[in-house]
């Protein structure tokens, strides 16, 4: 379960909390601010019988998949006398959210550039004090980023795919489009760049494996038979050889016939 910090306005997990003066106190591990929830000790005695004061355990109930957001509670203090000052009290309300999955689909950094510590060409891990990549042989000082950028069409489709990352159908459509355009190698590089930032990304792993499968399955089809131009050249050579042999045989036969009459 997560809650919204009132200090830094970040969503963070509720790792530890305690009850302080009748209020639930959650400390943000990022900014250190405390978020108080639940009524104070004086509030239940002043509340009217028709209303039940919120309890701290109710404030954080709602399951491990929820996000807790601080909202004001007004009904529990409807009967508080106007002359008394009532402290500001908030309760935690459970809100279902896919914010974490949305953030995971959009990792930080340029999706077309290798993160630090990886070869900018083949995305292999860089060894310390190495001037060239041990896997692809690239000299890092000679790397030109513009030579390894996807086409404009592929870049647009990749950005659109990142918004629907957890659905496989857009991945399949992108792979089919890249295969038709001859850009499967670039798509494979994009999946490796994604894995360099998020190694446990199952969709990126599946996409990389699918690229390898399509590349290996496309190679036999390309070499099943000779091209029409090559076949035509072979046919012409064979026909020429046959004509030469036939001409030699005719000449030999003519000489034999001529010798028999002489």
Structure commentary:
- Residues 39-63 are annotated as: Disordered.
- Keywords: Membrane, Transmembrane, Transmembrane helix.
- The chain crosses the membrane at residues 237-257.
- The protein is of the alpha+beta class and 262 residues long.
- The chain folds into 3 domains: 2-97, no CATH class; 105-222, no CATH class; 229-262.
- It is rod-shaped and about 135 Å long.
- A hairpin with a 6-residue loop joins strand 4 (23-27) and strand 5 (34-37).
- The termini are far apart.
- Mean pLDDT is 74; it is low at 40-51, 58-87 and 93-104.
- Helix 4 (152-162) packs antiparallel against helix 5.
- It is built from 8 helices and 7 strands, in the order βββββααββαααααα.
Q: How many domains comprise the coordinates? A: 3
If you average the pLDDT, what whole number results? 74
Radius of gyration over C-alpha positions, nearest whole angstrom:
37 Å
**Count of individual beta strands:** 7
Shape: rod-shaped
How far apart the termini lie comes to 115 Å
């Amino acid at each position: 379960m997560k809650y919204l910090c009132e200090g830094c306005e970040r969503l963070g997990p509720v790792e530890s909390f305690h009850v302080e003066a009748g209020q639930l106190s959650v400390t943000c591990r990022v900014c250190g601010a405390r978020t108080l929830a639940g009524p104070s000790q004086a509030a239940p005695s002043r509340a009217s019988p028709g209303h039940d004061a919120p309890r701290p355990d109710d404030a954080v109930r709602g399951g491990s998949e929820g996000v807790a957001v601080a909202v004001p509670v007004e009904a529990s203090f409807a009967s508080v006398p106007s002359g008394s000052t009532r402290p500001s009290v908030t309760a935690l309300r459970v809100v279902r959210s896919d914010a974490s999955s949305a953030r995971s689909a959009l990792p930080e950094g340029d999706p077309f550039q290798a993160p630090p510590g990886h070869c900018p060409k083949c995305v292999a891990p860089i060894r310390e004090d190495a001037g060239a990549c041990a896997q692809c042989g690239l000299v890092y000082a000679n790397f030109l980023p513009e030579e390894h950028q996807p086409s404009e069409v592929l870049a647009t489709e990749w950005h659109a795919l990142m918004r629907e990352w957890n659905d496989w159908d857009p991945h399949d459509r992108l792979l089919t489009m890249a295969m038709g355009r001859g850009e499967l190698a670039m798509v494979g590089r994009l999946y490796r760049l994604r894995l360099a930032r998020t190694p446990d990304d199952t969709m990126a792993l599946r996409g990389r494996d699918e690229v390898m499968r399509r590349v290996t399955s496309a190679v036999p089809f390309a070499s099943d038979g000779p091209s029409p131009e090559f076949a035509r050249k072979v046919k012409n050579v064979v026909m020429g050889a046959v004509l030469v042999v036939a001409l030699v045989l005719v000449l030999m036969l003519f000489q034999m016939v001529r010798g028999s009459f002489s």
